[in-house]
Write a structure and sequence with these properties.
Oligomer: single chain
Number of helices: 5
Number of strands: 16
Strand content: 35-45%
Bound molecules: NADP nicotinamide-adenine-dinucleotide phosphate, manganese (II) ion
Length: about 270
């Protein structure tokens, strides 16, 4: 029996397959003398796809003191380390305390608008667009230094974990998740005699803050945080950073390279 992980909670997607899987997972873990509890658990397990994993971490307010793992039930499941068939591996590693974990960087964002300051945490990304999907004009700064006068449909700012999600669809690069980077991926940047914006992604290290400074006349924004949409009017600035905050993900034999091949190319 593990000395560290003694109890668990399941975070289950709302479909039949996930619910059935959850019953099996609970039975197998309880047979191995782990206890199902509703609070103060050592291990949080998402059953479903990547959306379920993101929801679980959000529901735990990105708690740095517990372990997270996901069991995939059929969708892409890039963040999901295990399948139902791998439960024996999980049990064995828990019994002998031989599991490994990786630290994932958390993105923290502050949105300042005329009315309020709002704070968000994310595991994948934030996306900043005009709330009517009009062209956006804003300055982009990194640690208070001007990078560009941006014009285009918006900017996606992704962690390394999020690099294989929405970021990839907008032509961003894949980044190994043991880096704790932010990636600025422009969405349809304008480039002409009048406007010039970077066309490609820029990857920056942890602890550097990206600031978006909207031009005064067009500052109503739709900001999407790990897939959840928020509308703000009169945004003054948005600051986003990956600093020291991390969550712990249990990691099994999966090599990152194998995973990219399996999930995207095979
Ligand atoms: P969703 O619409 O099911 O997500 C779209 C796809 O992205 C799904 O196949 C999902 O996997 C996958 N995904 C999510 N996080 C990933 C990651 N870190 N690495 C690789 N793939 C990942 O919505 P959702 O499940 O609630 O996930 C929210 C995320 O979806 C957002 O944070 C955003 O990154 C992504 N998204 C992508 C697009 C796009 O690519 N056009 C559009 C909207 C949102 P599952 O199939 O296992 O859920
Ligand atoms: Mn999903």
């Amino acid at each position: 029996m593990s000395n560290i992980i003694k109890n668990f909670k399941l975070f289950v997607n709302e479909n039949e397959k996930a619910k059935m899987t959850a019953l099996s997972v609970q039975r197998v873990l309880e047979d191995a003398h782990l206890k199902y509890v509703d609070s103060n658990y050592d291990l949080a397990i998402a059953i479903g796809g990547d959306g379920s994993f993101l929801r679980m971490v959000r529901e735990n307010d990105f708690d740095e003191n517990i372990y997270y793992v996901g069991i995939n039930t059929g969708t892409l499941g890039f963040l999901q380390e295990l399948k139902l068939e791998d439960l024996d591996l999980l049990i064995q590693n828990l019994k002998e305390d031989t599991y490994k974990s990786v630290s994932l960087g958390i993105q923290e964002t502050k949105v300042q608008s005329e009315k309020e300051n709002r704070y968000f945490k994310s595991l994948n990304e934030i996306v900043i667009r005009n709330s009517h999907l009009d062209t956006c004009h804003f300055d982009v700064q990194i640690d208070e230094r001007l990078l560009e006068h941006y014009a285009g449909d918006g900017m996606l700012i992704s962690t390394s974990v999020g690099s294989t999600a929405y970021n990839l669809s907008f032509g961003g690069s894949i980044v190994f998740d043991d880096f704790h980077t932010l990636q600025l991926t422009p969405i349809a940047p304008l480039n002409s005699k009048v406007y010039s914006s970077l066309r490609n992604s820029l990857i920056i290290p942890e602890n550097k803050t990206v600031t978006i400074l909207p031009k005064n006349r067009e500052n109503d924004f739709l900001i999407t945080v790990d897939g959840c949409n928020y509308i703000f009017s009169n945004v003054k600035r948005v600051d986003t950073v990956v600093n020291q905050k991390r969550i712990q993900l249990l990691r099994f034999s999966n090599q990152f390279v194998d995973k990219v091949f399996e999930k995207f190319l095979k």
